[in-house]
Amino acid sequence: MKDGGQDDGIAAPGAADRSANERAILSLLRLEGPVSAADIAKRVGLSAQSASVITRKLEAEGLVRRGTPERGRVGKPSTPIGMDPTGAFSVGLRIGRRRSDLVLIDFEGRVSARLGQTHAFPTPAACLDFARGGLAEFRDALGSDRATRIAGIGIGMPFELWDWLDFLGAPTAEMQAWRDFPAEHAFAEATGLPAIVGNDASLACHGEHLFGAARNLRDFAYIFVGTFLGGGIVLGGQLHLGPGGNAGAFASLPVAGAGGGMKQMLEVASLLQLERRVDARHPGRGQDLLQRPSWTGFEDLEETWIEETAHRLAWTVLTVVAVLGLPDIVLDGSFPGDVRDRLIARVEALVAAADTRGIKPPRIVSGTLGTTACALGAGYRPIVERYLVE
To answer: pTM, whole model, 2 decimals?
Structure first.
């Protein structure tokens, strides 16, 4: 992952020492769940003796554990071996335009603890304090022994954040503070953990692919409707970042503006538009109302926003499919589930009614993780680097 021209990430301690066979076995267990020793040897291409030596080593390190022997079959009972969820942990931070989320995840990617904070706009100092304080809480909850098993912290943040905060009314000085902010070094220093920084939307796509509705999809585009608009591309089962690390930048797609000019997609298809309209009716309350688990009090604005946004998203969907020929589009956002369902239904109807000669209309898949997707995708990066096959 990249952070606006920074290195791809800091490898976790011990990453180079983890053998390819150990990584292969751990990756197999992550994907398949508990597997017998004989099946591990067969699937990874090892002798039974080699597989046994490696799995016992991993067991001694607390990374895998043995289940109850499965009886009732001919021959010696088979003992399934699976990942130990407490064998490793990691922290994921999502830096959003209006909200940031911090999660502690276990070896299997399940959320063990989470914290959140809202803001008018994010600042480097506030984000560092949030990560530092949240990590202290997580360590206290884990206890001294398990706290040493935190592999690192992954951070998902918008690229070139200083170019966008003016949409949120942020002071120029606060915007410029992000320009030369050495994110990986700063978060590593603040937390004492290896840090990996990546684009927030790409990591949300990664999280949905690993743990959400897209876990079984191999070729798809992911569109996330938040305060702005973002996304990601997965090709052949791998997150595709592009040469600049920012593939799937749907917010920057050009659309026709007034007087024959151009504007960007985020200006016409994002929650920022709805927030401004709610603010006009309820001064200063737009951000707070949109952060609620259910939306009430502005139903007419909501319906208008869904209709307008659905048209823009349908255009985006067909454009992406025409260029990449993808069979699936995963759609999610920072809104209640019922809003997502209505938005998707309208996008599906618009795509079905469109002129699709020359392309095959895709399936629209509902995302399941919402804002947690980015924190999960970011948080699992240190675990992958230290223990698994990419």
So the answer is: 0.86
